[in-house]
Write a structure and sequence with these properties.
Order of helices and strands: EHEEHHHEHHEHEHHHHHHHHEH
Keywords: GTP-binding, Hydrolase, Nucleotide-binding
Number of helices: 16
Strand order of the largest sheet: 3-2-4-1-5-6-7
Organism: Blastocystis hominis
Number of strands: 7
Shape: globular
Distance between the termini: 14 Å
Helix content: 40-55%
Largest sheet: 7 strands, parallel
Mean pLDDT: 80
InterPro entries: Gpn, Gpn2, P-loop_NTPase
Number of domains: 2
Function: Small GTPase required for proper localization of RNA polymerase II and III (RNAPII and RNAPIII). May act at an RNAP assembly step prior to nuclear import.
Protein name: GPN-loop GTPase 2
Strand content: 5-15%
Length: about 350
């Protein structure tokens, strides 16, 4: 039986850096580990690549020969790998006792709307591999509510389609304060008790330039508006006044908004006084200022509802310099589940 990880996530989320750091970490604890690059377009590999799909096929060659674009060429490469899967098995057999890290390309269609990767994983499992999916999401998205909602939905779809135990990681957490203001403490983005709480932030993103100017002009008048971050903190407070995981988030103030007064700047003062309205879909949609906002409020509400209904998604924060051990521990626990699943299957 072999153990390993399937590393996925959008481009720029830090997959290669994660693979490199994990390879170094395993080396320090004396655990044999290899990294398999399954991105046919990756020509800037940071880690020691033991098996590389470019030995079999490259994206550049496919695009030139078949006149395909990057995404179409990538799908072709995955299909080609699947048809020549014995090549991968033969290479893996050269490392019989090694922990295996599979570094995939970041295009989301590989995991959300195409079954080549899931078919590949099924064949690896048939060869005795017990795998865990590690999905990386850039913490930059926390400062962009509409993007974070989209990334959350994509992560959920990937988890379901991969049919693997999954660990979702919020990467580059050490840079989060440099990306811009965020609406909640870090605990909210990792635990995701209710994704719909981000909908106020989406409204700001959907404002037209005129509306945005009006909102900025009214910030001083609306400083007493309901503060969703405070509400969230009160919901999590324990009887002794401390939030769960305070020992893990002593510096949570660094992850809070630098200015909370403008959080609901796009609402009328009378509406924002009752922040609980965000929990009512009809009321939330009705309060839109423009047809454009009304249309997209409905859309984003439905996206949040899908993620909430599954109740599967949470994230581990990762600073690659100090927090890797915690992620590894969570993955090891997932491997135990994967082992039990294989024994029962």
């Amino acid at each position: 039986m072999h153990y390993g990880q399937v590393v996925l996530g959008p481009p720029g989320s830090g997959k290669s850096t994660y693979c490199y750091a994990l390879q170094q970490y395993f080396a320090t604890i004396g655990r044999e580990c290899i990294v398999v690059n399954l991105d046919p377009a990756n020509d800037n590999i940071l880690y020691n690549c033991n098996i590389n799909i470019t030995e079999l096929i490259t994206l550049e060659e496919v695009m030139e020969e078949y006149n395909l674009g990057p995404n179409g060429g990538l799908l072709f490469c995955m299909e080609f790998l699947l048809k020549n899967i014995q090549w991968l098995f033969d290479r893996l057999h050269e490392f019989p006792s090694s922990y295996v890290i599979f570094d995939f390309a970041g295009q989301v269609e590989l995991f959300t709307s195409n079954n080549n990767v899931s078919s590949l994983i099924n064949q690896l499992e048939n060869q005795g591999f017990r795998l865990v999916a590690v999905n990386l999401v850039d913490s930059f998205y926390c400062s962009k509510p509409e993007v974070f909602i989209s990334a959350s939905l994509t992560s959920l779809i990937s988890m379901i389609n991969m049919e693997l135990p999954a660990v979702n990681v919020l990467s580059k957490i050490d840079l989060i304060t440099k990306y811009g203001d965020i609406d909640y403490d870090l605990d909210y983005y990792t635990e995701l008790p209710d994704l719909s709480l981000m909908l106020y932030g989406v409204d700001r993103a959907l404002q037209s330039p005129t509306e945005e100017a009006e909102s900025e002009g009214s910030d001083s008048e609306n400083s007493s508006k309901a503060n969703r971050a405070n509400d969230y903190g009160k919901e999590l407070n324990e009887p002794n006044g401390n939030k769960p995981h305070d020992n893990e988030a002593n510096n949570s103030d660094a992850f809070s908004r630098s200015s909370e007064a403008d959080f609901d700047a796009d609402f009328d003062a009378s509406d924002a006084s009752d922040a609980s309205d965000v929990c009512d879909e009809e009321e939330f949609v009705r309060r839109a200022r423009t047809p454009f906002q009304r249309k997209y409020r409905k859309l984003y509400w439905m996206l949040c509802e899908i993620v909430n209904d599954y109740s599967l998604l949470s994230f581990l924060p990762l600073d690659i310099n100090v927090g890797l051990e915690r992620v590894v521990m969570m993955i090891e626990e997932s491997h135990e589940y994967s082992k039990d699943r294989g024994n029962n299957g």
